Amino acid sequence: MHILLTNDDGVFAPGLRAIRKELSRLGKVTVVAPMQEQSGVGHSITILDPLIVKQVDEEDGSTLGYAIEGSPADCVKLAVLELMDRPPDLIVSGINSGANAGINVLYSGTVAAAIEGAFFKITSIALSLELAEHFDYPRAARHAARIIERILANKPAPGSLFNVNMPAHSRGEPKGVRVVPMAVGRHGETFERRKDPRGRTYYWLTYAPPYHLEGPATDVSSLAEGFITVTPLHFDLTRHDRIGEVSTWDWNGPK
């Protein structure tokens, strides 16, 4: 098996190195990741600037992979179309520093890289670890590898897309695995107003989890309870249930 590994935290991120070690037990791993952190860039792609590619080596002289001066989606697109001899059998994105659950899925460069892989009809998995004071990436990588093995054992259809979130190690060992939908409640976002040393006003986005976690289990509520969450995703944003209704509207309108 040939695995493409990417992320949005950058090619030198500890989460990428931890999961690379575990994935090498499953097959050959090719790393193609952003040169710099790309958190929150969503599914942006580079159109107006060239994509610079640099080979990155380990301290022992072995090749770690390729660093791209672009977005996570750029990395997957370039890897599949140019840098690899043939398309990979699996694409893994992560391990991200911080959960990508709820509406964060829409902003996430980590998830966007996996979505880009699904565009190519390649099974793709996004991996994220809940925000904490200290990240235990090796532990998270072991759990993530087991989840990946379970996904592959069930032979998902080509282009299947999964979002996996793991609880912080401060919550103890995960209570299990829950397959749940993404939460769609708005997070408690605000902007903190500050002054820089020259007296200029600037704003810094703050974050708090959704206030209301009642109701059916979601990725946000299950992660808060200490479960690993697995959410099958798709990138078709069409409201198919409304096509019939909206097509009956008068589209000519008054003249």
Observed structural traits:
255 residues, Stationary-phase Survival Protein Sure Homolog, Chain: A, two-stranded antiparallel ribbon, 11 strands
Which of globular, elongated, flat, extended, rod-shaped describes the shape? globular
Helical content (DSSP H or I, runs of 4+)? 25-40%
Number of separate helices: 7
Strand order of the largest sheet: 3-4-2-1-5-6-7-11-8
* CATH fold descriptor: Stationary-phase Survival Protein Sure Homolog, Chain: A
Q: Strand count, sense and closure of the main sheet?
A: 9 strands, mixed
Order of helices and strands: EHEEEHEHHEHEEEEHEH
CATH hierarchy, class: Alpha Beta
Mean pLDDT: 93
Gyration radius from CA atoms, angstroms: 20 Å
Task: Just name the CATH architecture.
Answer: 3-Layer(aba) Sandwich
Kindly give the count of domains.
1
How far the N terminus sits from the C terminus, by CA atoms, comes to 61 Å
- CATH superfamily descriptor: Survival protein SurE-like phosphatase/nucleotidase
Uncertain runs are none
Proportion of residues in β-strands: 15-25%
- Topology, number of strands: 11
Structural class: alpha/beta
Plain-language structure description:
The protein has 255 residues and is of the alpha/beta class. It has a single domain (2-184, 214-236), classed as Survival protein SurE-like phosphatase/nucleotidase (Stationary-phase Survival Protein Sure Homolog, Chain: A), CATH 3.40.1210.10. The protein contains seven helices and eleven strands. The strands form two sheets. A nine-stranded mixed β-sheet has the order 3-4-2-1-5-6-7-11-8, with helices on both faces. Strands 9-10 form a two-stranded antiparallel sheet. Helix 1 crosses helix 5 (137-153) and helix 2 (72-83) packs parallel to helix 4 (109-119).
